[in-house]
Write a structure and sequence with these properties.
- The complex is a heterodimer of chains A (about 70) and B (about 500).
- Chain A is mostly beta strands and about 70 residues long.
- In chain A, about 0% of the residues lie in helices and about 55% in strands.
- Chain A is built from no helices and eight strands.
- In chain A, the strands form two sheets. Chain A has a four-stranded antiparallel β-sheet with strand order 1-8-6-3, with no helix packed on it. In chain A, strands 5-4-2-7 form a four-stranded antiparallel β-sheet, with no helix packed on it.
- Chain B has about 500 residues and is an alpha/beta fold.
- In chain B, the strands form two sheets. In chain B, strands 1, 2, 3, 4, 5, 6, 7 and 8 form an eight-stranded mixed β-sheet that branches. In chain B, strands 9, 10, 11, 12, 13, 14, 15 and 16 form an eight-stranded mixed β-sheet that branches.
- In chain B, strand 2 and strand 3 form a beta hairpin.
- The chains are: A mainly beta (about 70), B alpha/beta (about 500).
- Chains A and B meet through strand 5 of A and loops of B.
């Protein structure tokens, strides 16, 4: 079991939370969606696993590299 | 029998030369499921085509002569898919394939032959760095200069496979190559984890130092990671099949696979109408090009810029496409670096460029500025200007600001899909910047101003000023590209360009 921190690759505003704690995700499943550069950009699971933490809420401002969720593989 | 003694001695010496390192080391390779140096050459080259040079070479140090067959490298010539190549494989079973003077002479010999006689150079890397004590002392270190060549004019393609621990010399060769594939589990770094931890008192994990994730995702120095030695070698073969054997020839033309172009009818289902919605541009590329012909390079690096070789009607093309799937298609410094390097590759080997644009622009912000975004944007657009291969661009959806120029605004022919949207910036951003008005402040007024800024930004506006040569239905893209590739074929030079970037940097 290892803990994988999911980071935003892009700065923007969180417009939706697409997964919940305990959800089992496949690689590339969306976790949250960020609006940036007038685009709706999903931040996907970098690896398959179970979501243990979601650290953002709708409307939050997210910076590049910020941890938005944690997955356990 | 005449010459009986000589014949026997020759056979014995040859056996010893080809035996490589100890049987224990060779067994370790076999047990780990790895190929040894000679097996790698045998797997990659056409059967029976290997013509070796330097089998009888050994270390120049008398005490190492009996344990340094080939001085740790196997070199020679052969054929891949019936086309000649020069090849060098490091033999890790001989003194860790550490770099030494005689081995370097062998490398220089095949490198020069490859350039002079117009053959690709193939490097199968796995080496522990410079050989100690050979390299030690002022003389050992300084004379290494005469055994290395750092200048390359891209006369022929260079490809490298990283198949084991590769430190020093094999890493330089990989860095100088046009394409690098790596077996997962192999390591590419300047110095070994051991040397590194002694030098900087930091315990370093080799995988972290130069494993496949580091090289394919963080630095982009490796184009593709593969699961086995065989996959890695197959990947080199597949890459070379797209390119000419040398810069003075056009790429080979392939047969067109059945079913090519059939996916074009469904292309409108891939691209969403709402321009804020994302999609994976690789599906668009896959639909346009000959069936299964898209060969991505650096697929795990700067994913926002999809780059790769492909074929259209059997002709090799280089595709550069912004991918809204990642970062919404907003181009960052890494995307520019990847595109610039790919343009240099294509232009050096006469591969026409196709640019597919759908980008909200360059990704502005502190992070980009810290990484010298402006410099990378200019390198990218400079490369495109300097390229003398045919350049065709398709504006798929939005393409804003300087990114419009970078994404083929200076191409030889531009087609706009009827969904194209070209302006200096997104109209909604313009309302905010010019009028200081946000949507939530006054939705009705915002919408009115947004519509105002959204005028004259469509495909027909572009075509009206002859800034695009045609407006096409997305389903016509493959046919338009195939036709334009034929029109722009460089007939006067048999498809050979001017190669103005053949001395551009190895790494961007």
């Amino acid at each position: 079991m290892s803990r994988v921190e999911v980071r935003s690759e892009i700065p923007g505003i969180v417009i939706s939370i697409d997964a919940a704690v305990d959800d089992v995700l496949a690689e590339d499943d969306p976790i949250i969606t960020v609006e940036s550069m007038k685009m709706y950009i999903p931040i996907p699971a970098p690896i398959a696993g179970r979501v243990t933490e979601i650290l953002m809420n709708e409307g939050d401002v997210v910076a590049t590299g910020q941890i938005v969720a944690v997955i356990e593989t | 029998m005449p010459f009986e003694k000589e014949i026997a001695e020759h056979a014995a010496r040859k056996r010893q030369a080809l035996a490589m390192g100890s049987s224990r080391k060779l067994e370790e390779f076999a047990k780990s499921g790895l190929l040894n140096a000679r097996q790698r050459i045998g797997y990659l080259l056409d059967t029976g085509s290997f013509q070796e040079v330097g089998a009888f070479a050994v270390s120049e140090r008398p005490e190492d002569r009996d344990r340094s067959a080939g001085d740790g490298v196997v070199a020679g010539y052969g054929r891949i898919d019936r086309r000649p190549v020069a090849i060098l494989a490091y033999d890790f079973t001989i003194l860790g394939a550490s770099s030494a003077p005689i081995a370097s002479l062998k490398f220089q010999h095949v490198r020069k032959a490859a350039a002079k006689h117009s053959m690709p150079l193939v490097i199968l890397a796995e080496a522990g760095g410079a050989r100690i004590p050979d390299i030690m002392g002022a003389r050992g270190t300084a004379r290494a200069r005469s055994h290395q060549v750092y200048e390359r004019r891209r006369q022929t393609p260079w490809v490298t496979a990283i198949l084991g621990q590769s430190y020093g010399s094999p890493s330089w060769k990989a860095a100088m190559s046009d394409f690098v594939a790596m077996r997962k589990g192999a390591v590419m770094a300047v110095s070994s984890a051991r040397v590194t931890s002694v030098a900087i008192s930091e315990s370093v994990d080799p995988e972290e130092l130069g494993g496949w994730r580091m090289r394919t995702e963080v630095t982009g120095e490796v184009d593709r990671a593969c699961d086995t030695d065989q996959d890695t070698l197959d990947t080199l073969r597949r890459f070379l099949a797209y390119l000419p054997g040398h810069a003075m020839a056009a790429p080979p033309r392939a047969a067109v696979p059945l079913g090519s172009g059939e996916k074009m009818a469904r292309i409108l289902e891939i691209v969403p109408e709402a321009r804020s919605q994302i999609y994976d541009v690789r599906k668009v590329i896959d639909a346009i090009v000959d069936t299964d012909s898209f060969f991505p390079v650096k697929e795990r690096f700067a994913k926002v810029m999809a780059c790769g070789l492909a074929r259209i009607e059997g002709r090799t093309v280089g595709i550069i496409a912004s991918n809204p799937m990642f970062k919404g298609g907003a181009l960052d410094p890494e995307a520019c670096r990847k595109a610039a390097g790919f343009i240099v590759l294509c232009d050096s080997f006469n591969v026409p460029l196709i640019i597919l644009a759908d980008t909200p622009g360059f990704l502005v912000g502190v992070e980009g500025e810290r990484l010298a975004l402006a410099g990378h944007i200019m390198n990218f657009v400079h490369a495109l200007e300097m390229a003398t291969v045919p350049k065709l661009a398709v504006v798929m959806r939005k393409s804003y600001g300087q990114a419009y120029i970078n994404m083929g605004g200076n191409a030889d022919e531009i087609a706009a899909w009827y969904t194209a949207d070209v302006s200096f910036m997104d109209p909604a951003v313009a309302v905010n910047v010019v009028h200081g008005l946000r949507q939530q402040d006054d939705p009705a007024r915002f919408e009115e101003l947004r519509r105002e800024f959204g005028r004259d930004t469509g495909a027909y506006d572009l075509a009206a000023g002859f800034l695009a040569q045609d407006v096409i239905d997305p389903r016509e893209t493959r046919v338009w590209l195939a036709r334009m590739l034929e029109v722009h074929e460089k007939r006067a030079t048999n498809g050979v360009g001017e190669h103005l970037m053949n001395t551009w940097p190895y790494h961007f």
